[in-house]
Amino acid sequence: ILIGPPAVEQLIPYLCDEDRFMPVRVAEVLSGIHTLYVDPKARLALEAFVAINNLSSDFGYKWQADIAKLVEIGEPALPQLICRTLSDWDDKIQSGTGEALLKIVANPPALKETATKELIKILREDSRWYARTRSAQMLTHFPEPEVIVALAQALRDENGGVKNASAETLIQISRRSDEL
């Protein structure tokens, strides 16, 4: 049976599932679909998944090549980049996905807006304190009025790490605006 776009659309979000094993299983399914049904969205999502996972074991030029690949993929990689930047326990993956995310949203305003909204949503609604904390930290790079409001609200978060990260981000944004 050929599996087409409806199944792919349902599977792609699971590449960023909280369960450590789900993304790997979904990648296996998507790679199987890719061989049977050429779907550009599935191919790009799978390529992003592979490049992100390579960040964990790559060093030097190969690590930078993986980041360049993610930047080349662009918008289709954004959901995975945001998810993995905020919640991956591997520091190399967090760092690499964060770098790629910032490079992708540097130019097109629409992508920056999309990333900003997603980071704010995670800061406000995610149940995982470490994702909220990392979201507050990443918002340093998005000094928009709605970011300031979200960070100010996060000062009332139940988790001390989220409060501290939000306060530190507000301080950094304030210092940068004073320098301008």
Cα-based radius of gyration, to the nearest Å? 17 Å
Oligomer: single chain
Whole-Å distance between the termini? 59 Å
Please tell me what the overall shape is.
globular
Q: What percentage of amino acids are in beta strands?
A: under 5%
| Approximate helicity band | over 70%
By DSSP (H or I, 4+ residues per run), the number of helices equals 10
| H and E string | HHHHHHHHHH
Output mean pLDDT.
82
How many beta strands in the DSSP annotation?
0
What does it look like?
With about 180 residues, the chain is mainly alpha-helical. Helices cover about 75% and strands about 0% of the residues. It has ten helices and no strands. Helix 7 packs parallel to helix 9. It is globular. The mean pLDDT is about 80.
Provide a quick synopsis of the model.
This protein has helices at residues 5-11, 22-36, 40-54, 60-73, 78-87, 91-104, 109-125, 129-138, 145-154, 160-179. With 180 residues, it is an all-alpha fold. The model has no long low-confidence stretch (mean pLDDT 82).
